[in-house]
Amino acid sequence: MKHFLTVNDIESLPNWVDEAINLKKDPYQFEDLGKHKTVCLLFFNNSLRTRLSTQKAAMNLGMEVMIMNFGNEGWALEYGDGTVMDQGTSEHIKEAAKVVSQYADIVAIRAFAGLKNKEKDEAEEVINGFAKYASIPIVNMESSVGHPLQALADAITLKENETKKRPKVVLSWAPHPKALPHAVANSFIQMMKLQDVEFVITHPKGYELNPEITKGCKIEHNQDIAVENADFVYVKNWSSYSKYGEVLSKDTQWTMTKEKLGKAKFMHCLPVRRNMVVEDAVLDSSQSLVVEQAKNRVFSAQIVLKKLLKNI
Ligand code: CP
């Protein structure tokens, strides 16, 4: 693996999940692997879990960690080829990526979708720009279209909590006051395609995700039918894909309740808006796996960094 950019960079999901569960038992077992190696974490957007869990994962491997909030502290980057830089951008990604490559051995990047221009977002100019011009491995800490570290943590959490061979897993849209990206839902769907699960996606009409990603998935527009006999219900808001970035509905009929959840386990990547996305009674119950998912972010990042370190 040269870079970790998408779920498809996972070479063997069952092996990686088992390795992560093993690492969790003794997180420092590879503490010499990262000695004198540095990971640089570049944030173009806010974070709690991704920042701290990736830092912790690197520290468990004995790495040094440099963190920069690029969005408000770095120079505004230019991505276009041949641009006359007489406007707001101060530094070209060509130099920035090459310079960072001299300070670190791995660079991890968070750069969300702007949700204004689908073509621009899908071009992933930040993460693909670094992948093109940097000479070190790149890790995706949530890009415009994917959040593979989250999806890997979710796969670990599913494995640890499954009580039957082929569980039913439902991905349900939920209302939210703001327009949110599609990255978490996209990567979760890609991850479910790699698993032996009965997988159902439920959302109001108009909230269809990228058909290339949902191809082959069962989609049920009635949330009550979708969640019947579910073992895991993963709830997430996303904005419209066809009316790109628009909020078409804030219908709280889609808020996840204890009654709808039944006996299923509840999953969400966090941060979550209480009593909008999901009611308190779910989050405060033993059916909620959200804190376990956040814990597993350390081990998903640690597996990825460990694999990359072995190739450096
Ligand atoms: N789930 C997740 O990526 O959390 P943060 O946005 O806080 O990093």
Strand content: 5-15%
CATH topology of the largest domain: Rossmann fold
Low-confidence segments, given as residue ranges, are: none
Q: Considering DSSP H and I runs of 4 or more, what fraction of the residues is helical?
A: 25-40%
Summarize the main sheet.
Answer: 5 strands, parallel
Provide the CATH top-level class of the largest domain.
Alpha Beta
Q: How do the strands of the widest beta sheet line up side by side? A: 9-8-7-10-11
Bound molecules: phosphoric acid mono(formamide)ester
Q: How many DSSP-defined strands?
A: 11
Which shape, going by the Cα principal axes? globular
* Secondary-structure class: alpha/beta
Number of domains: 2
Helix-strand pattern: HEHEHEEHEHHEHEHEHEHEHEHH
Radius of gyration based on Cα positions: 19 Å
Count of separate DSSP helical elements: 13
Average the pLDDT over all residues and give the rounded result.
98
Please report the distance between the alpha carbons of the first and last residues.
11 Å
CATH superfamily of the largest domain: Aspartate/ornithine carbamoyltransferase
CATH-scheme architecture of the largest domain = 3-Layer(aba) Sandwich
